Each structure stands twice: as structure tokens, then as C-alpha cells.
Amino acid sequence: MQSAAALLSIVSFPAIDPVAIAIGPIAIRWYGLAYVAGIMLGWFVARRMLANTALWPNGTPPCTAAHLDDFLVWVALGIVLGGRIGYILFYDLEAVLAEPVRAIQIWNGGMSFHGGFLGATTAMILFSRRHAIPLWSLFDIVASVAPIGIFFGRLANFINGELWGRITDVPWAMVFPTGGPMPRHPSQLYEAALEGLLLFIVLQILARAFKALRRPGTVTGAFVALYALARILVEFFREPDVQIGYLAGNWLTMGMVLSLPMLVAGLWAILRARRASGR
């Protein structure tokens, strides 16, 4: 059975070195470059959106380009710290309590999107208060470009051969180096396509064609709700973290549980935006 299943894997996993550039003892990994690329490209697109006054309520952008430049440091720290702390709390707490030094051993565990989301949200709240920027509009700016970072991050997961999917016999299945001999769903690519590329296109259409940024909170709600739906869908194909496994039956995962409050929050944000705008 194992040999037959392996034969069905007709797509070879590309053996890409996780280290993009190595100079002596210094190694720059694709994962780190993905974070940099996502944040910088998101910053570029956000600046272009700020410059388009027709997108904003009363033709007035909620902040200046200089504000956005300063915000880069805040959101980067929020994403990285929140992502790491979230991973520990949601997926690796028992191991870290037993061995606290594990908290900084990132090679023993990665980053949690849900933790990064909370960290970025905290950064946005603090930054908006400090600079008197309308909070929901700042949320919208970040939400409209956040899928860019998700896209690059999931590609980096794929290059690292981590967070692979469940065993399957679909023609595009792959045998991952760390996933055993059986072919699996390349679920990282599913997430890159759904949570990244497709979500970015949908949000840009909402912002530009439907002028959703004029109703602060609409783009934010759409991002949160649609990400949650995409993540729940992909979780049916993604292998759960080994230290947690399935929470119920052979299908319910931690990713699904963490996404459900996001779905509710996203729908609430959309309704709140409609009520606030009177439309």
C-alpha cells in the first residue's frame, strides 16, 4: 500500500535550501526574507492607497506617508512578538513550561498567524492612540495589504518543508522530507493561494472598485472573516501540529478553533461599519 501511494505522488518536492544566503556564520533564511518582503511590499501598496484620496472618507486619508513609515517598526514588532508568543501559548505551552529556554529556540517551533494577528492589532491600537489616527481606518490600511505577507510566509513554509498537509492520493501530492514516506497535500500552497493571493485581490477590489474604505471597518471585517473561512477550509487538508493533534474526532484542529472567533469578529466589524456609515 505504501509503495502504491508513493507512486501516486507525481509532483516532486523542490529541494530548495531553506538558507537563501550564507556569508560565513551568517545565514539569511527564506522565512526571514518572506517577512521582510511581505512588510515592505505591503508598505509600498499602502502608500499608494494613501495617495489615492478618492478612496477615503471625504477625500481625506487617515494618516500621512510619514506616519506609515513610522508604523513599519511598530507592526513588525507586533507581528514577530505576537506570532512567537502565540505559537507558544496555542501550540507549545507544555513543552516551554517544562523547558523555558525552548521559548527562544525558534527551530523547535515557529510562528502562529493568530498570535501575529493579535500582536499586530495591539500595535495598531497603541500607534493610533499615540498619533491620533482613526483606528478603524488604520485597521483597514493594514488589512488591505496583510495578505501579501501571508502569501510570502506560506511560500516560505513550503520551501522549509514544514506545515505540510494530510496524507492523500491526489495527483499533485508531494512526499515532504520531514513528512514521512507518504504523499501529502501541499497545504502551504493552498494557504498561499487562498489566504494570500485570492484574499488580496478580493480586498483590493472592495477598496478600489466598491470604495469600501469610505466605510471604515469594512475592509478589516472582510479580511478577518474571509481569512477565517479560508483557514478553516485549508485545515481539512493540513496536518495538525503533532504535539496537539486533533481536538475532536479526526477533523477538528486548533487552527479551526482559533479561526471561529475571527469569523464572528469579522462579521461584526462589517455590520458595525454599515451601521456607522448609515448604509
UniProtKB/TrEMBL annotation:
<keyword id="KW-1133">Transmembrane helix</keyword>
<dbReference type="Pfam" id="PF01790">
    <property type="entry name" value="LGT"/>
</dbReference>
<feature type="transmembrane region" description="Helical">
    <location>
        <begin position="135"/>
        <end position="156"/>
    </location>
</feature>
<comment type="pathway">
    <text>Protein modification; lipoprotein biosynthesis (diacylglyceryl transfer).</text>
</comment>
<feature type="transmembrane region" description="Helical">
    <location>
        <begin position="71"/>
        <end position="91"/>
    </location>
</feature>
<dbReference type="GO" id="GO:0005886">
    <property type="term" value="C:plasma membrane"/>
</dbReference>
<dbReference type="GO" id="GO:0008961">
    <property type="term" value="F:phosphatidylglycerol-prolipoprotein diacylglyceryl transferase activity"/>
</dbReference>
<feature type="transmembrane region" description="Helical">
    <location>
        <begin position="249"/>
        <end position="271"/>
    </location>
</feature>
<feature type="binding site">
    <location>
        <position position="154"/>
    </location>
    <ligand>
        <name>a 1,2-diacyl-sn-glycero-3-phospho-(1'-sn-glycerol)</name>
    </ligand>
</feature>
<dbReference type="InterPro" id="IPR001640">
    <property type="entry name" value="Lgt"/>
</dbReference>
<feature type="transmembrane region" description="Helical">
    <location>
        <begin position="189"/>
        <end position="207"/>
    </location>
</feature>
<keyword id="KW-1003">Cell membrane</keyword>
<protein>
    <recommendedName>
        <fullName>Phosphatidylglycerol--prolipoprotein diacylglyceryl transferase</fullName>
        <ecNumber>2.5.1.145</ecNumber>
    </recommendedName>
</protein>
<feature type="transmembrane region" description="Helical">
    <location>
        <begin position="219"/>
        <end position="237"/>
    </location>
</feature>
<comment type="function">
    <text>Catalyzes the transfer of the diacylglyceryl group from phosphatidylglycerol to the sulfhydryl group of the N-terminal cysteine of a prolipoprotein, the first step in the formation of mature lipoproteins.</text>
</comment>
<dbReference type="GO" id="GO:0042158">
    <property type="term" value="P:lipoprotein biosynthetic process"/>
</dbReference>
<comment type="similarity">
    <text>Belongs to the Lgt family.</text>
</comment>
<keyword id="KW-0449">Lipoprotein</keyword>
<keyword id="KW-0472">Membrane</keyword>
<keyword id="KW-0812">Transmembrane</keyword>
<keyword id="KW-0808">Transferase</keyword>
<feature type="transmembrane region" description="Helical">
    <location>
        <begin position="32"/>
        <end position="50"/>
    </location>
</feature>
<feature type="transmembrane region" description="Helical">
    <location>
        <begin position="111"/>
        <end position="128"/>
    </location>
</feature>
